[in-house]
Amino acid sequence: MIDFILNNQRIKTAAPPGTAVLDFVRKQRQLTGMKLVCKEGECGACTMLVGEWLNDRMIYKSMTSCIMPLVNAHGKHLLTIEGLSAGDLTPIQQAMIDTTGTQCGFCTPGFVVSMTGALLNSRHTNTENFLEAIDGNICRCTGYKSIERAIGKIVDDLREKQLDNDLLALINANYLPAYLADIPTRLKAIASEFPKANTDAKAIRLGGGTDLYVQRPNEMYEADINPVFSRPDMREIKIENGVCTFGAALTMGDLYHSPTFQKALPNSDYLFRLLSSTQIRNMATIGGNLVNASPIGDFTILLLGLNAAIELRKERDSRWIDLKDFYLDYKKMDLQEGEYLMNIRFQLPENPGHFYFDKISQRKYLDIAGVNSAMTLRLEEDKTIAEMHLSAGGVGPIPQYLTKTIESMLGQQLTETLLDKALQVLQSEISPISDARGSADYKRMALRQLVIAHFLKVDENIYPVEKLIGA
Amino acid sequence: MNRKMSDKERKLNIDAAFHVTGRTKYLDDLPEWQGTLFAKVFYAPKAHGEITKLDYTKAAQSDGVFRILSYKDIPGENQIGGIIPDEPLLAETELHFIGQPILLILADSELQAEKAKSLVEIEIKEKEVIVDPKEAFEKGELLHASRTFTLGDTNAAFEDCAHVFSGEVASGGQEHLYLETQGAYAFPQNRGSIVVHSSTQGPTAVQRTCARILGVSMNQVEVDVNRIGGGFGGKEDQASPWAAMVALAAFVTGRPVKYILSRHEDLQMTGKRHPYKSEYKIGFDEDLKIKAYEATFYQNGGAAADLSPAVMERTLFHATNSYSVPNVSVTAHGCKTNLPPNTAFRGFGGPQGMFVIESALHNAARKLGLPFHQLQERNLLIEGMEFSYGQIVAEAKAVDCWDQAKRQYDLSRWEREVETFNAKNKYQKKGLSLMPVCFGISFTNTPMNQARALVHVYSDGSVGVSTGAVEMGQGVNTKMVQVAAHAFGIDSQRIKLENTNTTRVANTSPSAASATADLNGKALQDACNQIKDRFTAFIKRALQLKAEDLVGFKEEQVFINNKKVDWPWEDLVNKAFLARENLSAKGHYATPKIHFDKSKEKGHPFAYHVYGTAITEVTVDCLRGIYHFDAVRLVHDFGSSMNPGVDLGQIEGGLVQGMGWMTLEDLVYNEKGELKSGTLATYKIPDANYAPDVIDVQFLETDGHDLAILKSKAVGEPPLMYGIGAYFALTNAVLAFNPNANLTYEAPMTTEKLLMALYS
To answer: How far is B49 from chain A (nearest CA, A)?
Structure first.
């Protein structure tokens, strides 16, 4: 039985655990406010808020219900547009009306829910947070400006009423329905035990489902599932002796908002924003990102650039290997049958400023990179390269740790000439192909530019890029 | 007559409160009838060939499958071509594009139908695949006759030109990406008739197509459209096949049949904006006035004509955009390729034509060594000039918009700021561009410029309005409510907009060509006026007024000679009802003055033109080849806007959509005709961050145009073409970084093309 609260109603269902939440809510609960648009988590029209009682407080996160497995709703509170529209219009809804922030209306419920998520989930409710909250919502009609004007009105209203993310105050101000106050008590009444592990070897180990539900949606509906999303023993994070260790079931959103991770990699806000969208970050687990073995996975490239290691478990056995040794060939990993990814760890960069991540994509947010790259670099006072890790995605069959390029630079003084040589080595150890994300020539050029961009952050005069014109 | 709207009416959007609470019902939200069958299409896996084997016995026997239909099950004609009958609903033996429907699988659930699809066995003898329009032209593969518009004598004029330039230009396709995918739901009725709920912009097109497929007359098919979740032209003609399929299935099985396309199916099977390849030659005199312009357009029509002939025609109409050109010769070829048949998309061929002349001017300005906008400005369209199609330029606003934009946004200061920024920043460069637009309003096919409306005044004073307009987000329902409220002088709360339904309003033109509010609004005014005339006669009789006394309706009251009498609207209606007056009326409107003779390619096809000028600023990160739009500031000719909120939304939305077409939106087919951007992960449209930081829209103050509804000019399509400015802002930033850059004038300017250009 999957047991959860949908808006103001307790649901216990024997529906297949792999059912997409959107299908369940629309077809079995007849709530049609969430729209089916893409089934890829790419548009946000099916956004809902998922509430969880964690560390003595309710945490609500926006997620795209089209690719969320029903089993991941167990023990949680799902809040849809209908659940937010129990009484009078909320100030968010009113603002969207006042600014004509809605045209055909198909995307609108998703926007309203995402904005409400900003209220519940942000540290501050300023314009920037609201814009971030809609980074996974697409509208084809408005050009977004009227929606931004609505956000302006909402922020003004919050400021005027001196509201932050306090639940009761937001209820009193009609931003949220009153029944939200009782949800914690009601959630605690739900058997809080985690859904039983499915030990069948063929069962699919399922995290957030953000890739499996895009690649194999029909298969997932009837699949045997071994859920690990929200599994408590896979969600821990700590820093000990300069090493950050964290569980594979943590989501990108968890890390983004984790004070511990912020300590491990300060100023990483900008970097998380480049990874997918708010909704997907709230669902996608780090473990899933790594074992998906996509040659272009942003977080994989980021961890490779930190020279991270991973812990693989099989029943009681555990082994740690470097992430750079994990990928063998396209979608092939050093992963034995029955083995699974449990933890990830990396050495904190000596100086937080010495870590760089960059990507080029057609669209800045919620887009798969054409090419991405990360680098850790430690220089001696005389500019000798004492430590260096460099990774790149989109330039070969696997997420690549650029061993040869690193070797060509390590122990030497950082100069324009050295970089020129290294850029040549770089071209020799990558093998991009032409595909929908660009031609092989472009990817070669783009990676060259990203590597230069890393070094320009180290020293803005190290390399006169304009010399490459016509080269 | 032109009463300005009250604040309350300005704010009104009759759908907004339902949208924001998720209560608006779209096609897929209708309650499902018991016994509904779900349809899925099995489509061509290869772009060109002949079916040598098709076996679906296994599929037919799989779980939950009720029946599989092929072209053999069609009782009528297997034909859906609207302009030219060249497209079957279900393929017989020849396959012409990947995604061409072959079989319709009917099952108890979508998933079961989907699974059955993979059990169909097909073998195909493959033939040569063409995806490039020029290649198609060279091989004689044309969908319909080529056309040429001429004015003056270009050959003679080029002889006298001081400067002549020529070049090639290409623009890409564009996926509509209406958020609501295509779909339809059909219910069998008594006596063999069918009701079809369709997500369409063209209810009558759906009705006609269904009747043709079923082999019944049009009155046997009722099409109902509640509203649609975006259309942008994609549901003008291409909503029909899915509707015809479910109608066929309901007809054959006697059960309700529903088919909502998945996004993947929609992307694969439907046509898009036409990609174009073009060649041009442009000549200037000593004063840099354009003397002659020649262009040849190769339109990539896909595998069937669809609306391509009409789209191609509009390319010719708008080939000279907003410029005065005395000698013109423009030719267009509709080329047949093995892509899904391309179709209407906001702008309808106009943007493709305009991009070519803008590229020609940009290239000329660069070669002549003067700023692009100076060359544009010198040639702006002026009153009394002749368009290549014979219409004389009247009420021209090109210069007004341009001048107001320059003045209001202080262009010279803006340019200095950009120059200063570029001098200070090595790897960040800004680019600025101006984009003038002149767009003709009316269906270029004159007979389509007509509309009907039905108005019922109920005995309690409430009003029901039906028109042929389909609400797709453009706010036409709101505008229709305003028109009726204005006509009767009553509160808009009294008025209900009915679904668009072919049994209430027949023979509709599609909601397209930016003309929906004009045509249907004027028809609605006609219906309201008929009822008002009856009220007036009734009041005169009842109050024994003189013939010359003036009866008026406003503020929910009757006015006689501008004095209020104590006859509130409800009393008036009730009295008229008891006196057995007719409280219903059917209105009709046909746009006057317009005509076009295709044999001469001359006439007066447009009711009026809409003008504007947009200034775009972009900042390019020259290290990474990525960019961000800082601002688009524009002046637009709304006439006298009847709903500034709705109209502003059309401008902002159209602009951003046009920018997407020019930059982000990269529709990729490989040489086998396979769509390589067939997911939302690979085909990117603008998001909130992509949209310019600032969009500033100023209204050009004019009295409006009599042929526009309440003098409020059409606003749907024109703003899309402001997006073309995005391309040239980017090119200008590239030139600031690399003055010798090799520019190819191939849109979209993807990050790949941008980086390559920066370092070329």
So the answer is: 25
Among candidate residues A276, A227, A213, the one with its CA nearest the CA of residue A76? A227
Residue A235, token pair as written in the block: 């969600």
Compare all CA atoms of chain B with the CA of A367 and give the residue at the minimum distance: B681
Q: Find chain B residues with C-beta within 8 A of A433's C-beta.
A: none
Chain B residues 477-516 with a CB less than 8 Å from chain A: none
In Å, what is the CA distance from A145 to each residue of A275, A443, B16, B720? Answer: 24, 33, 16, 15
B521-541 average pLDDT score: 98
Q: Which residues of B85-119 are buried (b: 16+ CB within 10 A; e: fewer)?
A: ebbbbbbeeebbbbbbbbbbbbbeebbbbbbbbeb
Say whether residue B755 is in contact with chain A using an 8 A CB cutoff.
Answer: yes
**For residue A144, which residues of chain B lie inside 8 Å, CB to CB?**
652, 656, 686-688, 691
Are the Cβ atoms of A43 and B179 closer than 8 angstroms? Answer: yes
- For B63, other C-beta atoms within 10 Å of its C-beta total 11
B32-128+176-269 adopts what CATH topology? Answer: Aldehyde Oxidoreductase; domain 4 (3.30.365)
Q: How far apart are the first and last CA of chain A?
A: 64
Q: What is the CATH number of domain B276-444+598-758?
A: 3.30.365.10
User: What is the distance between the alpha carbons of residues B248 and B78, in angstroms, rounded to a whole number?
Assistant: 11
Helical segments of A317-439, H only: 403-409, 416-429
Whether residues A218 and B114 touch (CB distance < 8 A) is answered with: yes
Contacts of A358 in chain B (CB under 8 A): 624
> Is domain B450-590 in CATH 3.40.640.10, yes or no?
no
CA–CA distances in Å: residue A214 to residues A38, B264, B756: 9, 11, 32
- Taking an 8 Å cut-off on Cβ atoms, the answer to whether A362 and B19 are in contact is no
Q: What is the DSSP letter of A408?
A: H
**Residue in A36, A89, A145 closest to B695 by CB:** A145
Contact check, Cβ <8 Å, B623/A453: yes
Domain limits, CATH 3.30.365.10, in chain B: 32-128+176-269, 276-444+598-758, 450-590
Torsions phi, psi for B596 (to 5 deg): -155, 130
Instruction: For residue B697, name the pLDDT band (cuts at 50, 70, 90).
Output: very high
User: What's this model's pTM, rounded to 2 decimal places?
Assistant: 0.97
Complex ipTM, two decimals?
0.97
Sort out which chain B residues have CB atoms less than 8 A from A362's CB and list them: 664, 666, 684, 750-751
B476, B468 contact by CB (below 8 A):
no
CA distance A294 to chain B (A): 14
Chain B partners of A43 at a C-beta cutoff of 8 Å? Answer: 179, 680
Catalytic residues of B: 717
Test the B interface: residue of A103, A139, A210, A367 with most B CBs within 10 Å: A103
Residue B104 token pair: 């319709």
Q: Is B348 exposed, middle or buried (0-12, 13-18, 19+ CB in 10 A)?
A: buried
Each of the 471 residues of chain A gets a pLDDT tens digit; together they read 899 999 999 999 999 999 999 999 999 999 999 999 999 999 999 999 999 998 888 999 999 999 999 999 999 999 999 999 988 999 999 999 999 999 999 999 999 999 999 998 766 679 999 999 999 999 999 999 999 999 999 999 999 998 877 889 999 999 999 999 999 999 988 866 666 667 777 889 999 999 999 999 989 998 999 999 988 899 999 999 999 999 999 999 999 999 999 999 988 888 899 999 999 999 999 999 999 999 999 999 999 999 999 999 998 999 999 999 999 999 999 999 889 999 999 999 887 778 999 999 999 999 999 999 999 999 999 999 999 999 999 999 999 999 999 999 999 999 999 999 999 999 999 999 998 889 999 999 999 999 999 999 999 999 999 999 998
Tell me how close the Cα of A103 comes to any Cα of chain B, in angstroms: 4
Q: What is the pLDDT of residue A54?
A: 87
